[in-house]
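Help wanted!
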Amino acid sequence: DTEVTQTPKHLVMGMTNKKSLKCEQHMGHRAMYWYKQKAKKPPELMFVYSYEKLSINESVPSRFSPECPNSSLLNLHLHALQPEDSALYLCASSLGTGDQETQYFGPGTRLLVL
Amino acid sequence: GQNIDQPTEMTATEGAIVQINCTYQTSGFNGLFWYQQHAGEAPTFLSYNVLDGLEEKGRFSSFLSRSKGYSYLLLKELQMKDSASYLCAVRDSNYQLIWGAGTKLIIKP
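Answered by r_m:
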């Protein structure tokens, strides 16, 4: 089973709203990732959690706040977003972060900020 | 800097063979991945190469030459459902994935 699930599939929010994206995997993976992808562009790494600790933050604005409550769950809290933050937000997981670790992606949340 | 180059778009005919090339210049190398991404969907893992040579998986094969900084993805017996973007990604010395911009493959009947 290589399934990563994400909710919601679609989200429309205003610039003053607070919302959260959720990601879940039950593959025993210990690394989880958030990516942002704009149309016709490759995914851009935002955050990496390894063993439930934030290991990489790619200079992401503070209006994006990640949280890893346990090894199976990853959240992305959104607050005061801008229209340019509209994108597909992808969650991925891998067994670890070392050699030969393949990242498996969830279906993504398509976010529209008005 | 780090750079991965792939053709922007390719067109091929159903039933034929197509080769998508990827060249890379990265700070270190810890493997190369190919992903398939249909429009509006998440990338799905296709193949992984860390040693030189050819890896075959059904209709898809991937080749790597580390000395040349070069890989290709070979798709045989093309089907209409193979129309998608194909992303090449290299894991660098920090174990971070560096992504190419992707190659949009259009399959015609």
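OP: Thanks! One thing I noticed: Chain B is about 0% helix and 55% strand.
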